[in-house]
Amino acid sequence: MIQFLLGGRIMEEHIRKAMNDSIIMEAGKYYGLRFEEIEYYGGFENFIYIYKRQNIEYILRLVHSGHKAYNQVLAEIEFIDYLARNGASVSTVIHSVKDNIVEKVKIDNESYFTVTSFIKGKGGRVREEVKKPEFWQNLGKQIGLLHKLTKTFKPKHKRIVWEEDTLYKLAPKFLSGKEDEILKKLNERMKKISSFPKNTDNYGLIHTDLHFGNMVIDNFGNLTFFDFDDSAYKHFISDIAIVLFYHFAYRNPTIEIKTEKSLWILNNFFKGYKTHNNLPKEELLHLQDFLKLRELTLYIVIIAGGEETIQSEWGQNYINS
Q: CA-based angle 304:306:308, to the nearest 5?
């Protein structure tokens, strides 16, 4: 999900104040790093750093316990590690010097950072590639592989079911009063989606947030998916809806153009998807429900961000689109 400002800037400051050089040094030691080798890269709830080994760039990520508990991060990394070992287009997980896929750095008696590391994906943002059918076919192929692999994934640690996301639990708080109608629509849509049949052919642990900001593409057209921070148990069609939703989210085309382009995208997407996985045709009937769910979810994200986010160019463009 787009960085959810849980509790607004208060939460951000709380997490930022917990970070210091000694935390970074201790985290680095788990991967045989000296402090001067670690360079800050960015992040909000998650602190992202870069380090290099033999001209290969790596990510060092620190997740505050106020954002995600250790067991949930462990479940996320366990899933990514499984996908990477089975040929999926995801960032390779780096094991610590203790041969663990996650480590923990204590802050105090109640809070901590969970530390993970990956090989940084090669390439840049998806841009002009969206005009080519080959891109959509390859994207479908790689997402199809994710869905195929999740069918046989037997986790030791389990991620949440999508309805348990903190954003949905706090939605009544953010949508009280004048936004009651939005909350009603959200509850109705969630109830409807929760009633859909679930089986190994249509439901499992998925990324849930596969927009173009969470993938990179290299000069050869190879994709790398990252940021499984929101991974959860959900219908496979949701991943496909997310890709489609964000392709149009800020463009505001006419219904005719959107329909024509969507059919072109989906036709090419499923040519690739079927290489690895077959999604029951009836699942496509639910595509609109998941598109609407993301529309409502993103609206809540903006409202939860407070006046600064609401009045931002991005916030106003979305609300008024």
A: 135
- pLDDT tens string 98-138: 999 999 999 999 999 999 999 999 999 999 999 999 999 99
d(CA 234, CA 210) in angstroms, rounded, equals 13
Given a contact cutoff of 8 angstroms between Cβ atoms, the answer to whether 44 and 12 are in contact is yes
pLDDT digits (tens, 9 = 90+) for 248-281: 887 778 899 999 999 999 999 999 999 999 999 9
**Backbone φ and ψ of 274, nearest 5°:** -65, -10
Name the DSSP letter for residue 110.
S
Q: Residue 256's CB: how many other CB atoms inside 10 A?
A: 8
Q: Report the pLDDT averaged over residues 37-63.
A: 92
pLDDT tens digit string along 153-168? 999 999 999 999 989 9
Q: Which of 11-15, 24-28, 234-238 has the lowest mean pLDDT?
A: 11-15
> Cα dist. 71→51, 60, 74, 169 in Å?
25, 18, 5, 20
Which candidate, 43, 28, 13, 104, places its Cα nearest to that of 229? 43
Beta bridge partners of 48: 42, 61
In angstroms, rounded to a whole number, what is the distance separating the alpha carbons of residues 62 and 45?
9
Q: How far apart are CA 22 and CA 105, in angstroms?
A: 10
Smallest CA-to-CA distance from 12 within 68, 66, 84 is with 66
Question: What phi and psi, each to the nearest 5 degrees, are found at residue 279?
Answer: -95, 125
Residue 42 has pLDDT above 90, yes or no: no
Our CA dihedral for 124, 130, 134, 139, rounded to 10 degrees, sits at 70
Rg (CA), the chain: 20
d(CA 38, CA 204): 36
Q: Single out the residue of 206, 197, 208 nearest to residue 148, CA to CA.
A: 206
